[in-house]
Amino acid sequence: GVSGRTGVAVWNSGILLTRLLDELANSNPSIFANKTILELGCGTALASIASAKLGASSVVATDANTEVLALARRNIERNLSNNNNNNNVATDARTAVLQWGLMDASEYENVADVIIGSDLTYNSGSWVALSETMATVLKPGGIVIYLSLGHSGFNVGGEMGGFLSVVGNMGLQLLTKDSVEWKDNGIGGRSAEELVGSVITSEERDVIDSNGGVRVVFLGKKKTAVAVRKGYSQNTAEKAALKYGVQ
Known about the structure:
By secondary structure, the chain is α/β, with parallel strands linked by helices.
C-alpha cells in the first residue's frame, strides 16, 4: 500500500479544479499555450494530466511523497503516452519530489507560469511553507490557481481567509478580474466566483454549500515580491548554514 492515503484518491476538489482548468481553456484556448504548469500536492496527477491536454508545453506534477509520485507517474504515462503526435499535448510531462518550504522550493525558482493545486490548506501549520513555495516557484507575471472545498463542520471561508493573510506576507496577492495579471494571463471577464460557479451543477452546489462551501482564488506576485523574498531567502540560507556549521 501507499503511505499517506490522501494522495491515492481522486478527491472532489481535484475534479472541480480539473473542470475549472477545462472551462478556462474553453473560454481562451491559448490560456495555457507554451506555458509551464506546476501542480502542488498532485496526488493522482489528474489536474496535471488535464493541463497537459489543454495546451501547456511543460507540466510538472509535484508531491512530497515518493510513493504517491510513483502512482502519479504511471497515471501520466498511461494517459499521455499515446498523444505524442498531438501538438496540443505537452511533450514534457513529468513528476518531481517537492517538499514545501523555501529551501527545497529554491530548486524550482521562477519555473512556473501557472501553479495549480486543490485542498492544500486544511492544515494551518502548512500555510507558511506552502506560501513560501508558491512565491518562490511562480514566475513574475504568472498566476496561482487554487481551489479548496469545505468539509462537514468546517467552513472554507475561515480556512482561506487565514491562508490568504499568510500568502500576503510572502509576497503574493489576491487577483481580481480587474487585475493586470488577470487580463495578461487571459483569464477572461468573469470573476473567480462566477468561474467556479460555472463548473458546478445546482445539485452539487446544494451538497457543497451544506458541507462548508467552495472557494477558488487566483494569486500573483506583488511588484516588490522579488526583492523582498530574495532578502528573506538569504536570511534563511544564513540561518541554515549556521545550523549545520557551513562556512
